Amino acid sequence: MTKDEGLYIMKFERSAGVLLHPTSLPGDYGIGTLGKSALAFVDFMVEGGQKLWQMFPLGPTGYGNSPYQCFSAFAGNPLLVDLDDLVERGLLDGGDLDCIDKLSSERVDYPAVIEYKIPLLQKAAVALASSENVNDQNMLEVFVTEHSGWLDDYAFFMALKEKFGGGSWSGWDDDIRRRESGAVERYKVMLADEIAMHKALQFLFFAQWQSVKNYANESGIKIIGDIPIFVAFDSADAWSNPELFEFDEKLLPIRVAGVPPDYFCATGQLWGNPLYDWEYSKKTNFVWWIERVKACLQMSDIIRIDHFRGFVGCWAVPASDETAEHGTWEPAMGVELFESVAKALGNLPIIAEDLGDITPEVDALRDSNGFPGMKILSFAFDSSEDSDFLPHNYIANSVVYTGTHDNDTALGWYASASGKDKKFARDYLDATCHSFVWKLIRAAWASPSVFALAPMQDILELGSEARTNMPGSESGNWEWRFAAEDLTVDKSCKLKQLTEVYRRR
């Protein structure tokens, strides 16, 4: 059977879910974690009849705290590790946690969380790495061996990063920046303990994540993960695989990624990620990409690929530019890439984030692979024209969201919309000002789209103060959290009623 005959086409079942990153979960230690609050959220979704939990990338975040700019495309974020679990495992003492009870439960204060939490995580990781418990050592050894393809480079990168004061690898000594063999061997000996600590810390993250994922799956809930198309320049991926990218002789980006001026930003968005050398990837049969998708599929059941448009052509901006206004569209190799990944991994449970400047070639790449695209209801209510984002225009092979992390909450949109657009939205949804948010959720659930999802902020009917991210801004993003008491019976009952009425069970 060929791909065209359906070998690699994944068929999804009609269902619904919630968009929520674990950092937003409630808890005592300044940031949501993979502990009991994650399990309680799964219970809330079960009570509401939900089948999908979508989140952002789970990697270790750097400057700006964006999960779309991580130190690794494979590693997990240590800040998500639950401290209470480490106490229960005997890797921390209960008294170790007394010093961080001052951390905010309302928003994530990243500098404070990093200051208080990272030393405790490192203490636990060192305790694990030096443990005399045979079972712990065996499990750690198996993990390190199974994940050595990325873990060795990541742990080495993080140890080096700390050695050189936390700055980008572009500022390291030239010999190790270029990974000269003598320097590599010298630093591996010098930083052996630090490397072992970072490996143990990743073991703790993945152990907790697997417990959460297993609990969700056993409860009938699938995890939708997220793959950003690009990786950060300051990442283990770029440092250890420079040949994958458009770097000059100094190992600096020649051009960087972004998007042209659009709805979100008049000067475009300058992401700054290095661009791929697609010819090199093709010569290697896209092995790095195959391993990346494989790793994500081990962590999640379905993958949303961010900026799918970039697999046909990406907005390339000279690295010296300060805005994204003067970039050019440069071709990519999405056709060859997805053929290679599908041949290696089989059916690909992928959602394509096909927003932005979409061309017929992007549509063709999405449709030839059977990937559902995305529909955003917050984009639908321009009273002056019909819109592809209005539910009556959807096809079944699509995924509808009331909103995403990059736009305002539903209530925030309504508060700032023009009078004409508000009226059109109310007329379309048969809504009042007070019922607008849940009428919007109803429209998503009622639509033909195979999946319907709402950010947790919309389920809680919150305004712009709860927005996750403001594209183009450098502060205040990725900080929103909710409280445990927000998971009310009323909310779960509303979700369950809509889910049953529109057959998303």
Q: Can you give a write-up of this model?
A:
The chain contains 18 helices and twelve strands. It has helices spanning 36-47, 83-88, 110-129, 134-146, 148-163, 174-177, 181-190, 192-218, 236-240, 278-283, 287-299, 334-345, 360-368, 410-416, 419-429, 436-446, 456-459, 489-501, and strands at residues 15-19, 52-54, 222-228, 255-259, 269-274, 302-306, 313-318, 328-331, 350-352, 373-376, 398-401, 451-455. The strands form two sheets. Strands 9-6-3-2-1-12-11-10 form an eight-stranded parallel sheet. A four-stranded antiparallel sheet has the order 5-4-7-8, with no helix packed on it. Helix 1 (36-47) links the parallel strand 1 (15-19) and strand 2 (52-54). Helix 5 (148-163) packs across helix 8 (192-218) and helix 11 packs across helix 12 (334-345). It starts with 14 loop residues before the first strand and ends with a helix. 47% of the residues are buried. The model is unreliable at 1-7 (pLDDT under 50).
